[in-house]
Design brief:
Elements (H helix, E strand, L loop, with lengths): L6 H14 L2 H4 E10 L2 E8 L9 E7 L3 H14 L10 E7 L4 E7 L6 H6 L8 H8 L1
Antiparallel strand pairs: 1-2, 2-3, 3-5, 4-5
Length: about 140
């Protein structure tokens, strides 16, 4: 490996490493799923999943604010440890400092968003029993 001789070489090395272990080098985007206050969400597949049998969701956002980056990292560190039928688990986190993009790969669940489902309820909300069952 080449020795680092100046700051430009350090930046190139960092960029080269990020390209090897980046979202784009591991996943391929499929469908746009939606947009929220923290970014856009897409369906994606691992590049090694040629038959596209195991879908994932990826939340993609552009952040240049260190505080917001930390919030994304904290969300990832919490949701990767959770194991509950009603909470989507995170699997991988990629931060591309060159593009300023963050990609959080998580489980994919087919269906409607929770808020849409709630809005379809007879009174526009869950009953206490229905809400309780979400957390048990």
């Amino acid at each position: 490996m080449k020795e680092i001789s100046n700051k430009n070489d350090e930046l190139y090395k960092k960029f080269e490493i990020n390209q090897i272990d980046s979202f784009e080098s591991n996943y391929v985007l499929a469908d746009f799923l939606g947009e929220g206050c923290m970014g856009s969400v897409y369906k994606c597949f691992r590049k090694t999943d040629i038959e596209k049998q195991e879908p994932f969701a990826v939340k993609t956002t552009r952040e240049d604010d260190d505080e917001k980056k930390m919030a994304h990292k904290k969300e990832f560190s919490i949701t990767k440890e959770l194991d509950h039928k009603n909470i989507i688990r995170s699997f991988e986190y990629f931060e591309d400092e060159v593009k300023g993009e963050i990609h959080q790969v998580m489980g994919y669940i087919q269906g409607k968003e929770v808020l849409d489902h709630i809005a379809e309820q007879p009174h526009g909300h869950y009953t206490e029993e229905d809400a309780r069952n979400l957390f048990i």
